[in-house]
Amino acid sequence: MTYNRNTKSEAKSPLYHAYTVRDGKEGQKGFWTRIGSFFAHDDGEGGTLLLDALPLDGRIVLRAPKADE
């Protein structure tokens, strides 16, 4: 069996960022906290969600990254 050590893949950019959103007080916007990222698989059949934290209410919002992120 041979191994090719020269085939390092480039780091992928996330397809989505994962956030937990807490509702703001009356008349105020909600609080968005980034808790992870979603990376698509090369075969286009799903992906991997990497989380740094878990939301207390179980709700995770996935959003496409903006150009400056």
TrEMBL record:
Highest taxon listed in the record's lineage: Bacteria
Protein name (database record): Uncharacterized protein
Species assigned in the record: Mesorhizobium newzealandense
